[in-house]
Design a protein that fits this description.
The complex is a heterodimer of chains A (466) and B (448).
Chain A lengths: L1 H27 L5 H6 L11 H11 L8 E5 L12 H14 L2 H20 L7 H13 L6 H17 L7 H16 L9 E5 L5 H10 L13 H36 L4 H15 L2 H12 L22 H39 L2 H8 L4 H38 L5 H10 L3 H29 L7
Antiparallel strand pairs in A: 1-2
Chain B lengths: L2 H10 L9 H7 L3 H11 L1 H18 L1 H4 L4 E6 L2 E3 L1 H10 L6 H4 L10 E4 L42 H37 L5 E3 H18 L4 H10 L1 H25 L7 H4 L1 E3 L2 H14 L2 H11 L4 H10 L3 H14 L3 H8 L4 H9 L5 H24 L10 H10 L4 H29 L6
Antiparallel strand pairs in B: 1-2, 1-3, 4-5
The chains are: A mainly alpha (466), B mainly alpha (448).
Chain lengths: 466, 448
Amino acid sequence: MFKYILKRILIFIPTLLIISIMVFALNLYAPGDPVYNMAGIDPNSQKPLKPAAYNAIKSELGLDKPTFYFTLSSKAYPDTLYRIPKKEHQQTLSRLIGTYGNWDEIREYHKSVERIETAVMAIPKDSLNPKALIKIKDNIKGLYALYEDDKIQKNFKRADKSILSTPSTSVIKPLMDDMTAKYAAMVNNPTTWKTKVPSINWYGFNNQYHNWFSKFMRFDFGKSYQSKRPISEEIGERIYWTMLISILSIIIVYLLSIPLGIFSARKKDTVADSSVTTILFILYSLPSFWIATLLIVFFCNPEYINWFPPYGVGDPPDGAGFFQTFRIRAYHLILPLFCWSYGSLAFLSRQMRGGMLSVLRQDYVRTARAKGVDEKKVVWKHAIRNSLLPIITLFGNIFPAMISGSIVIEIIFSLPGMGQYLYQAIVYKNFPVVSTIVMMVGFLTMLGFLIVDILYAVVDPRIKFD
Amino acid sequence: MSKVQLQQHFNTKDMFGRKKKATDEKELSQSYWAYVSRQFKKNKRALYSLYIIGFLAIIALLADFLANEKPILCKYEGKMYMPIFKQYAVTLGLAKWPEHFKAGDWKEKEYDFVVWAPIPYLPNNLDYGASWANPFGEQQVKSIRWRHWLGTDDLGRDVMSGMIHGTRIAFMVGIIAMGIACIIGIFLGACAGYFGDSGLELTRGGLIVNIIALLLAFFYGFYSRTYAMSDAMEISFATGLWSIFLGVLIFLGIMVIANIIAIPFRKIPFFNKRVAFPVDIAITRVIEVIRSIPLLVIILAIVAVAEPSIFLVMAVIGLFSWTGIARFIRGELLRVRQLEYVEAANALGFSQMRTMFKHAIPNSLSPVFIAVAFGIASAILAEAFLSFLGLGVPAETITWGKMLAISRTNPSAWWFAIFPGFAIFVTVTLFNLIGEGLTDALDPRLKQ
């Protein structure tokens, strides 16, 4: 028994690690540059971040570290590519490496582009015709995103033309020549073979994933892009409503479904049973977002029936007593609670009926009946204990269902809970929040499975781990 | 008598040459599947559900002909056209529209003779004159032929047409997502169940070579071709698929070559020691990982990162809902692998892969049908949910979920709350009923 629990907990750890790697990878492939997202600035805007500010945010986010413990890449890739500040530059360089494979030359070329950019930026605006200056700037900056030979050559030509046409830019002419020479060196001495040789780089523990995960385990989830507040704080404000409704709903569901299932099983093959079964089946198939929409359209609408408030959790006035607060809250939460619960109710009752039926066929129930035990006692004393076992484990299934259910119910009824938080994060591309919630949901679900497995082992000694 | 004749003889006559009774014949010709289909037909609810699903499938197939802005058949300037068929040819690049059809509204043209589709609108057609048309109210349309039977939205887009074309999307989502789930689920579940933790034995040398080859194959098959693949994907979906397929070929090729190279190593005793690879543990771990994140949450997270596309939604639903199928197949194969015929196949010296794919899997597929029926229901529900939230599905695609969401912007338009939601409910329920019917038919132990 102890051994089983220990084994179960040990298996919990690798699963958690794999989930964390999946979520981390998702974060990594999120579009856009996280630094710009955090700063709340469009990277193509007129006022991009200054390099110092950029690097400050980057190191605050921990993005100046290698991504993972190791990488599998080709020999052409340097193990220091992550030190290049901008994500866009990294991508272009990585493309160039994939094409030419000579990192030393590529780096020289990249540096020469940077040098020319700073030189162009240093030219005072009024010193020459501004149109030509903008043209030069655009063409030089465009180089950061280009990797195809013909397009780069075009940019070169256009920049050259603008420089020749405006004599006051002669300062940058030598730099320009230097850049063209570096570029030619890069194109003419490719070491493509290097891209075909695999290599594994080991970076050690000071990497982005390691730091992210260890922070996560200490409830430090980083900051939200939108509000710039710590995510843990924002979650703390919202988790109350989700937990309140989930717990209420679980209590209601278990209180109703167990007697309903037993009733249905005892009256098997009667009209009562078949009608209960049919109603439960229909309830089970009704999508909760449809029912919620229907309820809002027809019961919260002055045009039809205006019984309930369509959104929110209510706003009790200051100094309202417990009963007044309760009344206002209940008035607001009754529809969401119904939509949240009916699916699980139908599911659990059906399971309870099935479990009860299979227990009632067992030998020991027949024995109890044969020796003349009262039917009520057979059901409520002998059968119920064993038929409750599968219901306990279903808690593990209901929990994730409740979380996904919370998303839609909270959005439709505008409840300030976790589901709505996730939805808003997705709509506004607030990736740190998305990954935090996904990770949390995964963690909680796994914890649910773990607890259920242990409970099951405690309750039913026949269970053996295999 | 030849063998065939002999067989026919005994099919119709018993051992004394007398004609068999009809009942005997029925029992003799009854295969397992005939038995299952008979059991399924006994369940009237499931049977009628299957008929209705068939009917809906026909609607999905013929959606272009049932609701379209173009005529099915028309005579224009003395020439006959079949514009809907022509549209297919144009999409495939086989034909071009004549000049006079290129511009202008199809409905404004002067035809000598024309047959319109039953619903003469596409889901995206705008009809500003009929904004928020009520299905029962008066409508600003030319004649009853142009009536919006189930109403319109603010831009005058026809609901009936959206319902018909939505059927097609719902079915596509269900079938493609479950197709992907089946391929992954059957393969992994079968491996887990058939090999268990000790069934797949490798030599130590083989294990080492395979691990190294796996890394190399991944490197040459996919990693070093990342840019080539993404460029090909940008040209078109087909070239992208071809590029991925090439990657798979390279991957498999390297694995095969590595295993051939590994053969001489077997002569060294150290490398020839056999070790068991715990397939079952590995695969059940993967299943647990996927089960630990609720399907909707993971889909939402991926959709947040990626560009909206209906095919992405299908692929993601498929990639994360194979665990049910895998668990079914695993359980079934755990039982089947101990049966005599698998032992016989092993004794005959068939390779393990052959025994698994040709003998064990075909005999344990039946529970998969149950999982597929329920899986299609939940895939359709998941897609409807996503489009209800306005995520994952591009703006121009009209789906049931999207139409249902319109009722949130205008609660007075009750037809948006009722019709699309009802369609989702009915389709999901029918697939669930079929799943129940299959459960009863395939697993007689559960009946009673």
